[in-house]
Amino acid sequence: MIELIDCEESHRWLLYEWRSSDEVRPYMYDRAEISRETHDAWYTQLLRREGRRGWIIAMDGKPVGAAFVSQHDHENRRATWAFYLADPSTRGRGVGSAVEYLVLEHAFGELGLHKLCCEVLSFNTAVVAMHKKFGFVEEGLLRDHWYRDGEWVDTHVLAMFEDAWAERRKRFGEQLRSRGLI
């Protein structure tokens, strides 16, 4: 079973390990090594929860990744989200879909958002496909947006709207429950 656990002080250095790992860093915008001081400051801001929220993704009680909602704009009822799976053994097992469902439920339920946005590097085709499967629509493509390893990389800009989620949530919830993922 997949659950989201609020980030707490005890998770500070676990997230540092993950963000510094070869499993996560290639999918981040900035792949440079993160200093302990930089991470410490970032995590302190995360715990203040001012316009952002962070969770540890747990699979059968074991921490396997993290998810974040940030840039929460209360007036315009929108935010941005991202996640990563730090444990490669979780990939291809429906964990990402369960996380997507749980975050969407939080975003459109508890937060009352109208729109949830995300950005995905173009080489991460599995995550782009997963977002679209859930009903995210592509709002744009930022061409040559990041320079990595001597090549320019595009970034997909996607969004989910509250009415689209209202139409899909029951079906996805039933599918994930039948697989024992949520």
Automatic annotation (TrEMBL):
Keyword Acyltransferase: yes
Matching InterPro entries: Acyl_CoA_acyltransferase, GNAT_dom, PseH
Superkingdom of origin organism: Bacteria
Top class in the EC scheme: transferase
A Pfam family: Acetyltransf_3
N-acetyltransferase domain: residues covered: 2-154
UniProt keyword annotations, A-Z: Acyltransferase, Transferase
EC number(s) recorded for this UniProt protein: 2.3.1.202
An annotated Gene Ontology molecular function: acyltransferase activity
NCBIfam families on file: PseH
Protein name per the record: UDP-4-amino-4, 6-dideoxy-N-acetyl-beta-L-altrosamine N-acetyltransferase
The organism of origin for this protein: Nocardioides jiangsuensis
Organism lineage: Bacteria, Bacillati, Actinomycetota, Actinomycetes, Propionibacteriales
